[in-house]
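Memo to structure team: turn this sequence into C-alpha cells by end of day. - J.P.
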Amino acid sequence: MSQPEVLVHDSADALAEAVASRLVEVLAAAQDAGRVPQLALTGGTVAAKIHERVRDRAADRVDWSQVELWWGDERFVPVEDPDRNARQVAEALLDHVPVDPTRVHPMPASDGGHGRLEQAAAAYAEELRARGSGGFDVVMLGVGPDGHVASLFPGYPQLDRDDAIAVAVTDSPKPPSDRITLTFPALNRTSQVWFVVSGEGKADAVGRALGAPTPDVHDVPAVGVHGQDATVWFLDRGSASRL
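Reply from structure team:
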C-alpha cells in the first residue's frame, strides 16, 4: 500500500490543469507500452474541469479508441438525467473524442432494462469481470464533506462488502437515494488512486482523512481506498486549509 502524496494547487483551475496533464501522460505511456489503459472516472464540478482539459491536451497524445472507460459509482436514474456521472463525463469529454463505444462502460441507468437496482449492480460487476483487465491504471475519486468516496458513505453496510465488485445503495444520505458503487476491493485493484478535491467545504474531510491517527474507514470512507503504486491527493487551497 502506497503512502499518500499530497499536491496542493492555488486554485481549482490549477488543480484541474495538473490532473489533466498527468492523466494524459499516464494514458499515453500505457499505450506506448502496447497496453489498453483502464480508467475509472468520477463526476462533479472539479472532475468536469479536468475532463475538459484532458480533451484539449490529449488530442495528439491519446488514442481514445484504445482506452477502457469505467465509473466508480453512479446515480440510478434515467440515462438522460443530468445527475448521472456518465452524462457529465460525456458532455465534458466523451462526446468530443473518438472513443470506441464498446470500450465505454457506464453503469446501468434506471431505464436501461436491468430491472431492480440490485440486478443492475450485479450486471455491472459481470461486465467488469468480462471486459476489465483485473485492475485499473487510474481510479479518480472525489471526496464528500462527510468523507465519502464513490457512493460509500460513513456508517453504511456497503463499507464492509468484500464479496462483490459492485453493490446497490438504496438510501443514500444525499439525493438521489438509489445508486450503484464499486466496493473497496474493486476500487483498490488499481495502480494509482487519485483523489481530486476542491473547496473549503471539503477541508474538514480532507483534514480528517490525512490527519494522524488515521480515522476508521467507517467514519471517513476515503481512507479505505489506496493505489498499489500511488495514492495522490490533488487539492486546492480551500480543500487543503485544514491540513
